[in-house]
Amino acid sequence: MAINEIQDQIIEEFTELDDWMDRYQLLIDLGQEQEPLPEQYKNEQNLIDGCQSRVWLQADMQPDGTILFRAESDALIVKGIVALLIRVLSGQKPADILSADLYFIKEIGLQEHLSPTRSNGLLAMLRQMRMYALAFQSKL
Predict the structure, then answer these.
(1) N or C: which terminus of the chain has fewer CB atoms within 10 Å of its end residue's CB?
(2) What confidence tens digit (pLDDT) does each residue in 19-43 have?
(3) Domains of the chain by range and CATH?
């Protein structure tokens, strides 16, 4: 599925919920549904700088030229945020990740409803995912 189609699905899911407490609960649920990151990837190299919570991100190039992202966080809401980013960007080609306009973040009101430290963490996670995409793109 294309990045914009996935974003549109997410926007639809979030706009069905009027109350931001319900949206936070949806984020927490998304994080809890995410597969746990294997222990071998919870290392210093995969720890994202700029996040107040601990967030580990693993990226692997797949044989079909797409990137598989996996992540974990020790904070419930942050785990949900990274689950959203993975849902949108995992399984995509590096060039598509690098050129993507991630409008869903603004559309669902995510950035304005996060604390400044969580907002910075969101940007740090996104920056790291794009850095992986750039690194993999340069190897193609």
Answers:
(1) C
(2) 999 999 999 999 999 999 999 999 9
(3) 3-138 (3.90.1010.10)
